[in-house]
Specification:
Elements: H1 2-26, H2 38-49, E1 54-57, E2 70-78, E3 81-88, E4 95-101, E5 107-114, E6 134-137, E7 146-149, E8 158-162, E9 167-177, E10 180-189, E11 192-199, E12 203-204, H3 206-212
Parallel strand pairs: 1-2
Antiparallel strand pairs: 2-3, 3-4, 4-5, 6-9, 6-12, 7-8, 9-10, 10-11
Length: 222
């Protein structure tokens, strides 16, 4: 009799345990999809717009295997943004790609800008500018200057022409016209003020210039 009572009491427990096991097996956790990294985001753009293979970081390119493909190398970071030099494997970079980390952890490609040999040697990463940024005019060289115009056009009346090293504040823009990206900037030069539109090609953030002009570390001979 005692044996029968014990079995009756255990039966509900065994049924509950079996139900729990059955429920657990049907509710298996699905793996969380991985978020594409910045290099993967650039790679997607390359495959869609350049129609060539992409190997990711240039340091991973294999001689004799990855020749002719595109790769990237990180050259800077500013807040949530990263800049990459992009070009053929085993060669100098031919473009600059800038990506930004979004609030949800994903990466967004902001821009891919081809290097312009005609711009000369403009030091520093060409980070996207915003209204309120302080910029420095750079890369024009001795004897040349950046023309400040009344309108965002090469046909606009010239108001001033400022040399390398001139500082200014971005007031408005950008306006894309005549192969240039124009910004309205204001600042002080030659005892007076200026306020007008200029091509952003020769504008850099001060920290970008400072980083570019830092002496590079050299390996100590062993």
């Amino acid at each position: 009799m005692l044996e029968r009572v014990s079995l009756v009491l255990l039966a509900p427990l065994l049924l509950a345990l079996a139900a729990a096991c059955s429920s657990g097996s049907g509710d298996r956790a699905t793996p969380t999809p991985s978020v594409p990294g910045p290099e993967q985001v650039i790679g997607d753009w390359v495959r869609q717009n350049r129609n060539v293979d992409f190997v990711g970081d240039c340091s991973s390119a294999k001689p004799g295997v990855d020749v002719g493909k595109l790769c990237v190398a990180q050259i800077g970071e500013r807040g949530t943004r990263r800049a990459y030099s992009m070009g053929p494997t085993f060669s100098e970079g031919t473009a600059t790609a800038i990506v930004e980390r979004q609030a949800d952890g994903t990466w967004k490609l902001l821009s891919v800008t081809n290097n312009d040999p005609s711009a000369g040697n403009v030091p520093g990463i060409d980070w996207p500018l915003e209204v309120g940024d302080q910029i420095v005019v750079i890369g024009l060289g001795e004897g040349d200057c950046l023309r400040i115009r009344e309108l965002p056009s090469q046909q606009g009346k010239q108001l001033q022409c400022v040399p390398d090293g001139t500082k200014a504040i971005v007031q408005e823009g950008p306006v894309d016209a005549e192969t240039f990206r124009w910004w309205r900037v204001s600042g002080e030069f030659a005892g007076g003020g200026f306020n007008g539109w200029a091509a952003g090609k020769w504008m850099r953030l001060p920290e970008a210039i400072a980083q570019a002009l830092q002496p590079q570390a050299t390996a100590t001979p062993q």
